Task: inverse folding
């Protein structure tokens, strides 16, 4: 009998813990994301959508900017999953590498810009909870994630571009 009661209590405590976490998000991270989304949207409107598109088109011409600047701008301004739409500025032969670079940046950006990929917040917040428990600052973690993310997306873009070119050459 005690076993069944303990299982029932444990089951309910699981949902209580989930509700507590959800309540924290409702008063913490969700308003932050809404404000960040509003700010990014206003920024795009102030600069002008056409200027943003022209900047993206220019960024595709250079291998470095194609796999760093373009994915970063797309993720920051459009978020997941709209960031993939910047792929329309990239030549077909570079689209797989652009996609790889962009999708690879969706986690590292979360610490500094949580609006960019709400789905990754679960992962980042779990890591952040551990870092906070250890007494380390989150700002340093977020900046390191971001910088390492930029390096990784550039490498992934280059590697994927080479793999795609090799496979495409074999088709002929």
Result:
């Amino acid at each position: 009998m005690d076993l069944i009661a303990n299982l029932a209590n444990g089951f309910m405590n699981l949902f209580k813990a989930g509700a507590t976490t959800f309540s924290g998000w409702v008063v913490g991270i969700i308003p932050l994301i809404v404000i960040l989304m509003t700010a990014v949207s206003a920024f795009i409107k102030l600069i002008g959508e056409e200027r943003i598109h022209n900047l993206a088109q220019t960024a595709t011409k250079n291998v470095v900017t194609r796999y760093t600047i373009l994915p970063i701008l797309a993720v920051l301004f459009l978020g997941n999953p709209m960031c993939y739409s910047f792929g329309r500025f990239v030549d077909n032969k570079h689209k797989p590498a652009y996609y790889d670079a962009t999708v690879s940046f969706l986690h590292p950006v979360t610490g500094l810009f949580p609006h960019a990929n709400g789905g990754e917040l679960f992962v980042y917040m779990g890591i952040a909870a551990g870092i906070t428990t250890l007494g380390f600052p989150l700002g340093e973690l977020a900046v390191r994630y971001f910088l390492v993310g930029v390096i990784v997306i550039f490498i992934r873009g280059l590697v994927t571009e080479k793999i795609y070119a090799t496979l495409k050459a074999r088709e002929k």
User: Anything to note?
Assistant: The chain has one domain: 47-171. The chain has eight helices and no strands.
